[in-house]
Amino acid sequence: MSKVNLNTPEVPVRELRLGSITGFSGTAAGLVSCSNAGGLKDGSRSFSQCMGCSSGNAFCQLSMITDAAMVNHAPVGCAGDFFGYNFVYRVGQMERDLPPVIGRYFNTNIEEMDTVFGGARKLEATIRLAFERAKPKAIFVTTSCASGIIGDDVESVTNKMTRELGIPVVTCFCEGFKSKIWTSGFDSAYHSIVRKIVKPPEKKTNKVNIINFWGSDVFSGLLNKLGYEADYIVPFSTVAQLERISEAAATIQICPTLGTYLGAALEQVYGVPEIKAPVAYGLAGTDAWMRELGRVLDREQEIEEIIAVEKAAVLPKLEEYRARLTGTTCYITAGSAHGHALIALLRELGIDVQGAAIFHHDPVYDNGDPAADMLDHTVKTYGDVPNYNVCNKQAYELANILNRVRPDLMIARHGGMTHWGAKLGIPTLLIGDEHFSWGYQGLLNYAERILETLDNKEFVTNLAKHSTMPYTKWWMEQPPYTFLGGNVHVQAY
Ligand code: SF4
C-alpha cells in the first residue's frame, strides 16, 4: 500500500510509487504471476512513436470543474489539446442540462527568453488575468516539461497568488517527461485537490463519491434504493462540492487506473472507505462488486435481493446473445483496468479474446488490496489471454499484431486507435461512455452494440480496399515486439 503524503506538493509517479510498467509481451497470466511475485520489470523500447502525457490527463480532470479556471504554465504547444477538452466539457454540460459555457483555460506561453530568465512573472500575470476574466472559485496551475526543466518555483507563485486573490490557487505538478505512464497525471490532479481543496469532514453524509470521467448516470438508481446518493467527481463538480468529499459514506471507482490515488487518499486521510473489489463488468465481477458495496454501506441483505432481481432480468437475453456471439474473435486496445474489465465482459459474452494491447500495467493499486486487481480476477474467472502486450499506444506494434491475428472484431477505448482496425477491414467498436457496460445490464448493452458493429462490416471492407498502411512490408513481416527489449517475456511468433 502506498502512503499518501499531503505535506509534499508532488505525488511520486507510478513507476516509483506502484512499480508500473509500459513494456511487456506474453500472456495475461504471465503478467499477473510476475506482478504477484513482485518481480515485474519494465521492457524498454529501442524505438518509440508518440504517446500521451501526464499533463493532459491532469488537465482532463481539473478542466471540467465547473467553477474553476486552468492555467497551463507551458509553451503554447502544450495547449494544443485544449479544444478537445473544451468539446467534451461542452457536450457533457448539455447532457447534464447545464448551460454549455466554454472552458476557462489559459496558457502562459513560455518562450525562449523565459527559459533563460524564468517564467514566474508571466505565470503571476496569467493567474491574475484568469481571475479577472473568469471569476473562478479556484485556479489550478498545471506544469509542463519546460517549466520543470527551467526550474520555475511554481509552488511559491501559487502560494503568493492564493494570499493575493483570496481563492485557492493550486499547483498540479504533472511535467510530461517525468513519467512514461500518462495516468500519473490523474494522480497529480487528485493530489492537488486533496491537498488544497478538500476540507476535513464536519459530519458524515449519505453521499457516495463516484470517481469517473464523464459517463452516464448508472449509479443513482442503485444507491437510492440503498438510501444513499451518488456524487460524481471530478468532472462537472463544483469547488464547494469537492471541499466536502471527505464527508462521504464511501468511494466508488469506475476504473482503478483512474481513481487509485484519490480513493486511497480519501480513505487514508479522512477515513472514507473505498469499495475494493473487481469493477462490475461481467457476472462474476458485478456479483463481487455489489457484495462489497453492500458490506461497506451495511446493506448486505438489500444487495442480495437486488442481485437476485437484476440477474434474473438479464440472464435469458444474455443466453440469446451468447448463442449469437460464441466463436467471434476479438482483439482489444484500451487503458489498463478498463481493458481488463472489457476482457471479462467479452469472455462473459462467449467471445474469444485473442489478445490485447493495454496502455500500461499497475502491479498493485494504492490501496494495496489484491481483491481489487481486475486482471487477476479476469484471468482466474475466464482463463488466460494470449498475445497480451503492455504498449503505450505504439501504433506500429498494434498494426503489426492486428495484421497477424486478424480478429472478427476490434474494440478500442481511445479515439485515434480505431482506424488501425478499420484500415485492415476489421470491424472496430469504440464506446466512450465507460458506464455503458457497467453491471448486469451493461452486458446486454455491449452485446447489442457488438452485433450492430458486426452487421455493418461492409463499411470497413470498402475502407480497407481504398486504404494504405504507412508501415512498410518489411515491418509488417517482422515480429511485432522487435523493438521491445530488456526484461520482457516475449512470446514467439
Ligand atoms: S508537458 Fe511535455 S510531454 Fe506534455 S505536451 Fe508539454 S512538452 Fe509535451
Quick structural summary:
The chain has 493 residues and is of the alpha/beta class. The protein has 21 helices and 13 strands. The strands form three sheets. It has a six-stranded mixed sheet, sandwiched between helices.
Describe the structure.
The protein has 493 residues and is of the alpha/beta class. The chain folds into three domains: 52-179, 3-Layer(aba) Sandwich (Rossmann fold), CATH 3.40.50.1980; 207-288, Rossmann fold (3-Layer(aba) Sandwich); 298-477, Rossmann fold. Helix content is 46%, strand content 12%. It has helices spanning 14-17, 28-37, 54-62, 82-95, 112-117, 120-134, 145-150, 154-165, 184-196, 220-225, 239-243, 256-270, 282-296, 300-325, 336-348, 374-382, 395-405, 418-423, 439-455, 457-465, 473-477, and strands spanning 23-26, 68-72, 105-107, 138-142, 169-172, 207-211, 229-233, 250-253, 329-334, 352-358, 388-391, 409-412, 428-430. The model has no long low-confidence stretch (mean pLDDT 95). The structure holds iron/sulfur cluster. Iron/sulfur cluster (SF4) binds next to loops. Iron/sulfur cluster binds at residues 53, 55, 74, 78, 144-145, 175-177. Residues 59-454 form the Nitrogenase/oxidoreductase component domain. This is Nitrogenase. GO terms for molecular function: oxidoreductase activity.
The small molecules bound here are: iron/sulfur cluster
Number of helices: 21
Could you give the count of β-strands? Answer: 13
CATH fold node name of the largest domain: Rossmann fold
Oligomer: single chain
Q: Can you tell me the number of structural domains?
A: 3
Major beta sheet, specifics?
Answer: 6 strands, mixed
State which percent range the strand residues make up: 5-15%
Low-confidence stretches: none
Structural class: alpha/beta
CATH superfamily of the largest domain: Nitrogenase molybdenum iron protein domain
Integer average pLDDT: 95
Helix content: 40-55%
In whole angstroms, the N-to-C terminal distance is 37 Å
Gyration radius from CA atoms, angstroms? 23 Å
**What order do the strands of the largest sheet run in, or round the barrel if closed?**
1-11-10-9-12-13
CATH class of the largest domain: Alpha Beta
**CATH architectural grouping of the largest domain:** 3-Layer(aba) Sandwich
Shape label: globular
Domain Nitrogenase/oxidoreductase component: 59-454
Pfam families: Oxidored_nitro (PF00148)
InterPro entries: Nase/OxRdtase_comp1 (IPR000510), NifE-like (IPR049939)
Protein name: Nitrogenase
